[in-house]
Specification:
The protein is of the alpha/beta class. Helix content is about 30%, strand content about 20%. The protein has twelve helices and 17 strands. Strands 1-2-4-8-9-10-12-15 form an eight-stranded parallel barrel. It has a three-stranded mixed β-sheet with strand order 11-14-13.
Length: about 375
């Protein structure tokens, strides 16, 4: 029996080791830390750079780092990591080394699952949206078979997170998969042929009316921050649009930013948006909340960023408590809360200890979820 009230699963970014592609695009030795450490405030009162504390500027090629991360997460109520995984079609992979070593070594002895980050990499966040770095392709059935076979070692791992006996697999951009029902049907068929009980497929979406069952999935992870980010019109009376860019109140800042783009950088207060980051709507299918402890992707995106400032562990406690209320009556296997994210430092989106708050965000998780 778990010591915690819910199954908290944290998304995990692997981009903390050099790879040839990043060397070519951004310079020798580039990792996520490159953007984090060079970050500057964009306006008065903007809290940048945000830097790590306990784990330092780690390299994920080092096994001891992965052990330290797992120990921290386990001790504070995170059931497991959901590793972002990249398969661009025709066998093209990237940033796969950390999870490959986790699977082959059997260490850390800590639960995990995978999320397919199925999106094209471009230069959009660096002011060059027309520059395609890697195109996400969907070549068809044989490529899906090859992809499944590549993932099979992970799915069969005893540490792999399961829902009702089925390996949990997340899709980051389900709307991008042109033949999603054929894709999910094939993956389930291959799972059964390989002596698995099937797959439990969760689709990330910002749309509360996106029916996963109609699209071949089992559930949705409601990443509602996406609505705020993209300015999507309200869905069934969701009122994200009432939060206009708060810098508009400062005309001199608006003029500066509009010289370089059509609208100023998006800035919101965390206390204002947390009521809209979880949905109290009732669903006819499995829908899981996604909690956001903090957000400021200006280190990666500069003036193209969205900043949710004044986030604190105390406010995050309120946000996480709201999410817990939404899952408390579900069966134990499905008391799931996704956390975005464990270590997205260049998005200012992390649970790992930082210099400003130390381990306080992790302490909140343990406090709220402990029985």
């Amino acid at each position: 029996m778990s010591d915690f009230k819910a199954r908290a699963i944290a998304f995990y970014l692997p981009q903390y080791h050099p790879i040839p592609e990043n060397d070519e695009w951004w310079g020798k030795g580039f990792t996520e830390w490159t953007n984090v450490t060079k970050a500057k405030p964009l306006f008065r009162g903007h809290n940048q750079p945000q830097l790590p504390s306990d784990l330092g500027y780690y390299d994920l090629r080092v096994p001891e780092v992965r052990e330290q991360q797992a120990n921290l997460a386990r001790e504070n109520g995170i059931e497991g990591f959901c590793y972002w995984h990249y398969w661009f079609g025709n066998g093209r992979k990237i940033l796969e080394r950390p999870i490959t070593e986790v699977i082959k070594s059997g260490k850390p002895d800590y639960p995990f699952c995978l999320a397919w980050a199925n999106e094209t990499w471009s230069g959009i966040w660096h002011g060059n949206p027309k520059k395609i770095l890697i195109q996400q392709l969907y070549p068809g059935r044989q490529d899906y078979i090859d992809y499944f076979n590549y993932l099979l070692d992970a799915f069969q791992d005893q540490r792999y997170i399961r829902i009702d006996g089925k390996p949990l697999f997340c899709l980051n951009a389900p709307e991008n998969i042109p033949d999603i029902v054929a894709f999910t049907d094939l993956f389930r068929e291959l799972a059964v042929k390989n002596s698995l009980e099937g797959l439990y497929i969760v689709a990330n979406t910002a749309l509360e009316n996106w029916d996963p069952v109609a699209h071949g999935c089992d559930a949705v992870n409601l990443v509602l921050i996406g609505n705020l980010y993209r300015g999507i019109p309200p869905v069934e009376n969701v009122v994200y649009r009432k939060y206009k860019n708060q810098l508009i109140k400062k005309p001199w800042l608006t003029k500066i930013y509009r010289k370089v783009r059509r609208r100023p950088v998006q800035v919101y207060d965390y206390k204002d948006v947390i009521p809209f980051l979880t949905s109290s709507k009732k669903f006819a299918y499995d829908a899981y909340p996604c909690v956001i402890p903090n957000w400021d992707n200006s280190p990666r995106s500069g003036i193209n960023s969205m900043i949710i400032r004044h986030a604190t562990p105390e406010l995050f406690e309120r946000h996480l408590s709201n999410a817990l209320e939404l899952v408390k009556d579900k069966p134990d296997q499905k008391k799931i809360i996704f956390v975005k994210s464990w270590n997205e430092w260049a998005e200012g989106n992390y649970l790992e200890p930082g210099r400003e708050f130390g381990r306080q965000y992790l302490n909140v998780v343990k406090k709220v979820l402990s029985k």
